[in-house]
């Protein structure tokens, strides 16, 4: 990371993916969002103008790599190049949702590792640091040759369920075997047992032949995953738990991707409440009565403040005693 000049100011910019979250972070930090304009030409090309000096400043730029994924990613690339050419003291990319994170390995022959390619582009564009939240796999940090602060939403999620009184007689459920680690972490915070919905293939779960590993009958259940994409996996898990005799069923995830028919799947599911965060901006059409959105603005604001003042962010990862 570049050496910070003595007079370097903290400057926060927001691109188009999630300006509401950026404004919440600015309010937490008691700073204003800096002035930049993003223009899209009719052929899809992007033009960015930074309308104030950033020379020698510590710049934080927020952009989720969410739908439209490639457009939002290119906005981030162009913005970082503009900041680098404007002599910013440091460029810190805040990426609440890291698109392409699931393409983190070769699952078959001749397949790209796109998550690594994205990391390379971010570094080449001029980022000195990446601040991300709940990466699909923690190992993605190793794809970067620059510092990565991998923040966690799980403490706020656990606190929500505690405040709502949903921590007694509760079981945390992984909707498939790939989600066990996250479910175990939430269960530890809530001092609850875990269960697993046994899904053996990528097709829609056959509810009649599904297996729930663990005791859920007569218990409240929280189904936990890092993201909800099409909603099919989460809806299937709820149906399997209802069949197994669970009482109230809740869903919890950090990233509300909500692609395809996700909203319809979740509306019609057995969930009493679906808890997500605001890492991805949700249009009104994707909001519904069962949905509860927690803000991650305080997490990012604390991280930005600590990083700007050259303090350790370790306190953000050791909050078990405060839950």
TrEMBL record:
Pathway: Metabolic intermediate biosynthesis; 5-phospho-alpha-D-ribose 1-diphosphate biosynthesis; 5-phospho-alpha-D-ribose 1-diphosphate from D-ribose 5-phosphate (route I): step 1/1. The gene is prs. It is found in: Cytoplasm. Mg(2+) binds at residues 136, 176. Its EC number is 2.7.6.1. Belongs to the ribose-phosphate pyrophosphokinase family. Class I subfamily. It comes from Ligilactobacillus faecis. D-ribose 5-phosphate binds at residue 225. It catalyses: D-ribose 5-phosphate + ATP = 5-phospho-alpha-D-ribose 1-diphosphate + AMP + H(+). GO terms for molecular function: ribose phosphate diphosphokinase activity. SUPFAM superfamilies: PRTase-like (SSF53271). This is Ribose-phosphate pyrophosphokinase. ATP binds at residues 43-45. Gene3D superfamilies: 3.40.50.2020. Its main location: cytoplasm. Binds 2 Mg(2+) ions per subunit. Residues 10-126 form the Ribose-phosphate pyrophosphokinase N-terminal domain. It is an enzyme of class 2 (transferase). Homohexamer. The active site is at 199.
């Amino acid at each position: 990371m570049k050496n910070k000049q003595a007079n370097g100011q903290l400057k926060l910019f927001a691109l188009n993916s999630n300006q509401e979250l950026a404004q919440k972070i600015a309010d937490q930090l008691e700073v204003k969002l800096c002035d930049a304009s993003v223009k899209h030409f009719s052929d899809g090309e992007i033009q960015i103008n930074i309308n104030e000096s950033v020379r020698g400043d510590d710049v934080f730029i927020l952009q989720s790599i969410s739908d439209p994924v490639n457009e939002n990613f290119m906005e981030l690339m162009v913005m970082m190049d503009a900041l680098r050419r404007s002599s910013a003291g440091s460029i810190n990319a805040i990426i609440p949702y890291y698109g392409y994170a699931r393409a983190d390995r070769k699952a078959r022959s001749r397949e790209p590792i796109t998550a690594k390619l994205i990391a390379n582009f971010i570094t080449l564009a001029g980022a000195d640091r990446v601040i991300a939240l709940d990466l699909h796999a923690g190992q993605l940090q190793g794809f970067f040759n620059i510092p990565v602060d991998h923040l966690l939403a799980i403490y706020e999620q656990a606190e929500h369920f505690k405040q709502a009184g949903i921590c007694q007689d509760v079981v945390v459920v992984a909707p498939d075997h790939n989600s066990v680690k996250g479910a175990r972490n939430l269960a530890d915070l809530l001092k609850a047992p875990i269960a697993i919905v046994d899904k053996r293939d990528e097709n829609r779960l056959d509810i009649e032949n599904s297996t729930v590993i663990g005791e859920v009958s007569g218990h409240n259940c929280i189904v936990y995953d890092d993201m909800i994409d099409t909603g099919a996996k989460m809806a299937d898990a709820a149906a399997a738990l209802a069949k197994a005799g669970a009482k109230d069923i809740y869903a919890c995830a950090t990233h509300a991707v909500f692609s395809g028919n996700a909203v319809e799947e979740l509306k019609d599911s057995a969930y009493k409440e679906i808890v997500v965060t605001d890492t991805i901006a949700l249009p009104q059409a994707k909001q519904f009565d069962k949905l509860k959105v927690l803000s991650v603005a305080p997490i990012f604001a604390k991280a930005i403040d600590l990083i700007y003042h050259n303090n350790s962010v370790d306190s953000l990862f050791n909050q078990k005693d405060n839950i």
